[in-house]
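Give me the 3D structure for 3-hydroxyisobutyryl-CoA hydrolase.
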Amino acid sequence: MDVLFERDGHAGRIILNRPSALNSLTHGMLRSIRETLDGWAADPEVATVVLTGAGERGLCAGADIRAMHDDAKRGGAGYRRFFRDEYRLNELISRYPKPYVAVMDGITMGGGVGLSAHAGVRVVTGRTTVAMPETRIGLVPDVGGSRLLALAPGELGTHLALTAASMTAGDALHCGFADHFVPAAALPAFTAELATRTPAEALAAHAADAPAGELAGQREWIDACYAADRVEEIVERLLDCGVPEAKEAAEQIAAKSPTMLKVTLAALRRARTLATLAETLDQEYRISCAALAHHDLVEGIRAQVVDKDRDPKWRPATLAEVTEAEVAGFFTAPVDGDLGLG
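Predicted structure for 3-hydroxyisobutyryl-CoA hydrolase (342 residues):
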């Protein structure tokens, strides 16, 4: 089974169970999780839901992007349905009526963030790495990630989105992707105690101060450079500011799809004006459906995962060639209709 469901005392446990694929998500997994959460919401014997991932590497690396690549080449109908069910599940998690504890141990990326970072109780460890790496493959941060990034302190979210950089546990706490730090050595005891104790009680016994992240100390140059309204100007500021980390960020951005960089920046700026996660997910659904029909998604996954040549041929190839009209097209209603959450 790709996802396991267990009853343990008063805890309902969801265990993502594709460790050889870093627990990447299939459509069937999403449907099973939704059905189970709906049932547990009405079950008086389930007091707490606990999400974990099987294996030693992490909670979840996101969607199965090889399958996404193949579906997009066939027209993308399968992944439009995937996104519809995924984003609706993300929204349910954000308002789940019982404590939902997400254990973000190890790698937690993309769709894994969607299953965890909207939870009521979000736990990271010293092994945690959190990322929204979508711009690496010609996509845009989704699963509500654009809202989390938009609401991060200053322009940290813009930096993370455009570069696809990773966060440590301390960074994730600082940027609003997590709430509590539990040392990895204490994790087995913490999760076991959720069968008989409330999350607050278990956290009181096992939570600790997280090691400091790096991003908070880089706010000065990040805020100054990423406050620009155009990706071209952001890159210019990064190259001109004289900070080695800024130059490195500019180089990381230069490797990404020019179209998706501009759409990402527009999505984050718009997300700051949206009142709810549901509205943001509606916007992301439009963008993701449009991305499925765009050359750069198939090409980005090809270069990263299929052929692994790390040499994508983006169309258009430069930021200057991407027009405002092309960017605006990503925010129009998809062929299958809107998500309808907002």
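The first strand starts at residue 3 and ends at 8. Let me know if you want a second pass.
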